[in-house]
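Weekly structure sync, notes
Attendees: PL (lead), two postdocs, one rotation student
Agenda item 3: pending single-chain targets
PL asked that the sequence for the first pending target be pasted directly into the notes so everyone works from the same version. It is reproduced below exactly as submitted, 127 residues in total.
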Amino acid sequence: MEARDKQVLRSLRLELGAEVLVEGLVLQYLYQEGILTENHIQEINAQTTGLRKTMLLLDILPSRGPKAFDTFLDSLQEFPWVREKLKKAREEAMTDLPAELSVQPTVSSPRPANESCVEPILQQKHW
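Predicted structure, written out during the meeting:
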């Protein structure tokens, strides 16, 4: 899932939780499309309230691949107002953060002062 889609889910988390999205066909559609596994479904259904179930779904979705957000949108047939809100937030995120900038480059951080420097020493020694 793209960084901007993750941000959309994060920014609307409480609103999405209030909708109790897991009571309809959402989970079954996500399972059918391979976004959720059987274990995910069991774990979500084991939660005691609709809010907890929805929050767990929102925790799982970002790690489920590049198609997860679009498939989640497709799953919201019973919740067209939620789908439209997500699409609008996504469009706004696209204008704020273009796709090519949504993937943050990895920057290596300097080694902490207290970290061992054994590796450079081993590289210098020729066995």
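Discussion points:
- The chain has a mean pLDDT of 80.
- The two ends are 45 Å apart (CA to CA).
Action: rotation student to compare against the earlier draft before next sync.
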